[in-house]
């Protein structure tokens, strides 16, 4: 065996010549295998890259669609918020206006209940004529109470109407009587029967008044009678002239 090995060592070219085809085939097969493996690896990498790119594209499209949907939802919620805010603002204003109206109504109701007392004070002041010292002292005390009442009404914004000689206005006045007048034109107030009052520019109580109808019917009738007499005289004179 040692001799054979030495022979092979001594004649390496002979050994290669004895198996040249086997060595070439093995190397070719190995190259083909390596190339095949490289192709398989490259194909796997390529397919993986394609899948990754496809997934990225799908993710991008999904993100864009989701963003658009979120924008629509945001716009919808924003519109709802604006409507709710406007409704709440209108509700707040309406509540404030209703509260103010209710407050004014309560004040008007309370003050209207006091006005008849003021009327009685004024009637008593016109009728009473104190002569003795005791009566005058009582009258002064009475006038002091009346002044306090009037001051309280002024502090609340109550002011009396001035109606004499004014044009009749159904929004301010209530006509109780109408009578002919030689001094005033038609629909002019000639007498105040009950005083009216304002509350901060609004009517607290209408004034009861007497309104002029203008010149009286008796005067008109007298003028017509005189005119008829003149016409009769002219007619009679003409008749007499024709007879002559």
The first-to-last residue Cα distance is 203 Å
Overall SS class: mainly alpha
Total strands: the figure is: 6
Helix fraction, binned, reads over 70%
Determine Rg (CA atoms, Å).
60 Å
Q: How many DSSP H or I helices? A: 5
Coarse morphology: elongated
Average pLDDT number: 76
In this structure, how is the largest beta sheet organized? 3 strands, antiparallel
Strand content: 5-15%
Give the SSE order as H and E letters. HHHHEEEEEEH
Report strand order across the widest sheet.
1-4-5
Catalogue the unreliable spans: 1-24
What are its keywords?
single chain, mainly alpha, 6 strands, elongated
Structure description:
This protein has helices at residues 2-10, 12-18, 20-127, 133-155, 217-243; strands spanning 158-160, 173-179, 189-194, 197-199, 202-205, 207-212. The chain has 244 residues and is mainly α. It has a domain at 77-156. The strands form two sheets. The chain has a three-stranded antiparallel β-sheet. The chain is elongated, with a radius of gyration of 60 Å. Mean pLDDT is 76; it is low at 1-24.
């Amino acid at each position: 065996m040692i001799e054979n090995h030495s022979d092979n060592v001594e004649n390496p070219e002979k050994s290669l010549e004895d198996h040249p085809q086997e060595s070439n085939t093995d190397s070719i097969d190995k190259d083909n295998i390596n190339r095949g493996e490289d192709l398989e690896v490259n194909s796997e990498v390529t397919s993986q890259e394609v899948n990754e790119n496809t997934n990225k594209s799908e993710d991008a499209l999904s993100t864009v669609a989701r963003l658009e949907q979120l924008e629509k939802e945001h716009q919808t919620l924003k519109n709802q918020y604006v409507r709710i805010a406007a409704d709440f603002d209108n509700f707040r204003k309406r509540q404030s206006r209703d509260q103010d109206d209710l407050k004014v109504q309560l004040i008007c109701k309370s003050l209207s209940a006091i006005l008849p007392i003021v009327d009685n004070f004024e009637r008593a002041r016109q009728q009473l004529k104190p002569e003795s010292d005791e009566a005058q002292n009582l009258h002064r005390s009475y006038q002091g109470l009346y002044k306090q009442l009037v001051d309280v009404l002024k502090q609340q914004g109550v002011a009396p109407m001035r109606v004499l000689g004014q044009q009749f206005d159904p929004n301010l006045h209530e006509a109780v009587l109408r009578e002919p007048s030689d001094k005033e034109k038609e629909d002019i107030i000639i007498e105040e029967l009950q005083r009216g009052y304002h509350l901060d520019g609004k009517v607290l109580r209408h004034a009861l008044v007497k309104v002029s109808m203008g010149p009286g019917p008796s005067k008109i009738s007298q003028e017509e009678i005189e005119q008829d007499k003149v016409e009769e005289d002219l007619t009679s004179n003409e008749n007499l002239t024709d007879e002559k």
